[in-house]
Amino acid sequence: MTAFFMRFSRKNEFFLKLSLFLAAMLFSIFAHSAGIVVKSAEFSPKDDYRLNAYFDIKLNPTLEEALKKGVSLNFLTEFELTRVRWYWFDEKITDASWHTKLSYNALTQQYRLTSGTLYQNFDNLSDAVSVLGSLLHRQVIDVNTLRKGAKYVGRLKMSLDVSLLPKPFQIDALASNEWNLGSDWFQWNFVP
Q1: Distance (Å, whole) CA 57 – CA 107
Q2: What are phi and psi of 33, to 5 degrees?
Q3: In the chain, what are the domain boundaries?
Q4: What phi and psi, each to the nearest 5 degrees, are found at residue 163?
Q5: Is residue 38 over pLDDT 50?
C-alpha cells in the first residue's frame, strides 16, 4: 500500500513540476511578446554628433487589431543630454522629443509612418515597425554647446503616446496594460 502511495506522489510531483515549468515558459513568452527595448544608441563619430539609435518594437495583438481598424498609433521618442559635474547637480545640456505616427490605410492596404511632414508607405507591418525602430542621423544637439573632454550622459526612450489616441481608446488604455507600450530609459556615456 505504501509503495502505491509513493508511486502516486512521485507521479503527482512530476506533473506539478511539469505544469510549473510550462506556466513559467508561457509567462516568459507573453511577458516578452510585446514591448519596446532600446538595443543601442550612440552619436555618429563625425563633427555634427547626430544620434543613431535602434529599438526592438513588438506590438501586441490588441494594438495590431486597433491599427487595422484605423486607429493611428503615435510613438513618442524622448532624448536628454546632461554634463556630469562633480561639484553640483549634473547640467542639463538639451532635451528633445518627437512623435512618429504609425497608421494603416484600408483602401490601399498599406502602413504609413509619418514624422512631421515626411511620410513613408509600407506593404507590411513588420517593415514599418523595423523602420520605426531605426533612428538614424537625428540632429539633437548643437555642437557649439559641447566641451571637448567633458563627460556627458545621454538618455533615450520610446513609448506609445496614449494621450494622442481617440478618447474611447484613452479610457481603455487607462484600464488595460495592453496599451502601455514603452521602453525604459537607455543611458550611455559620451565624451566629445
Answers
A1: 26
A2: -80, -30
A3: 1-32, 33-190
A4: -70, -20
A5: yes
